[in-house]
Amino acid sequence: MINIVSKNDLKTCIHKVRNAGDKNRSDEKYNQASVLVLFINDKQKKNSSILMIKRKKNLRKHAGQIAFPGGRREKEDFNLKETAQRETEEEINISKDNYNIIGNLPKFFTGTGYVVTPFIGIMKTSSNWKKKLKPNLIEVEQIFFPLADYLLSPKFHSREKPPINSSMSMTWAINYNNENIWGLTARVLVTISAGLGLREFPPCDDI
Q1: Fewer beta carbons below 10 Å: N end or C end of the chain?
Q2: Measured between alpha carbons, how far is 106 from 102 in angstroms, rounded to an integer?
Q3: Residue 62 clears pLDDT 70, i.e. is over it
Q4: φ, ψ at 125 (rounded to 5°)
Q5: Rounded to whole angstroms, what are the CA distances from 99 to 24, 77, 88, 172, 201?
Q6: If you average pLDDT over residues 75-93, what whole number do you get?
């Protein structure tokens, strides 16, 4: 297992998964969106964590779900990278000055009508992001930092049927402190795990 996920590790991962996104589909019926998978490396503790959020339970879509910061592309966004940066700042008050984006994974399609591009970043060690971190209480119930060692370990990845109201046929799931990480978020984590050489690549038959 990789305790600290370095910049070079992530570059290699992104290269390996460049063809490991979803099946080829037409984007026309899907809303464009992006998320930011933000790694935080602690050299003293010799580990990496991943910033994640729990969405408010009263939201119209993805209520109560564990997710990465991100959302739907707006007209003013120059590209999907800018979407991920804007949404991250809106949701948790962390601007792009606090992290470096290493690259992005291929497109992932969701059962709720989105085509999502995940961007991968590392928090700058020189940043005082901890003092700035603040959840947008309209959208975000909680911010937490699971260890990458746990989230990316295949022994915690399971393939199962989605919730009854989901339009997906199957989903990946990761249980973390009694929180169920599933759907797109889990699949992105499983894909990163495969890109780091920790497991095989996941199938693309979720929807």
Answers
A1: N
A2: 14
A3: no
A4: -70, -25
A5: 31, 19, 11, 28, 27
A6: 97
DSSP character string of the chain: --SS--HHHHHHHHHHTTT-S-----GGGSEEEEEEEEEEEETTTTEEEEEEEEE-TT-SSSTT-EE-SEEE--TT-SSHHHHHHHHHHHHH---GGGEEEEEE---EE-TTSEEEEEEEEEE-TT--HHHH----TTTEEEEE--BHHHHT-GGGEEEEPPPTT---S-EEEEEETTEEEEHHHHHHHHHHHHHTTSSPPPPS---
pLDDT digits (tens, 9 = 90+) for 23-51: 777 778 899 999 999 999 999 999 999 99
Integer Cα distance of 191 and 114 in angstroms: 18
Stated pTM of the model:
0.93
Residue of 163, 177, 174, 188 whose CA lies nearest to 63: 163
The CATH superfamily holding the domain 7-151 is Nucleoside Triphosphate Pyrophosphohydrolase (3.90.79.10)
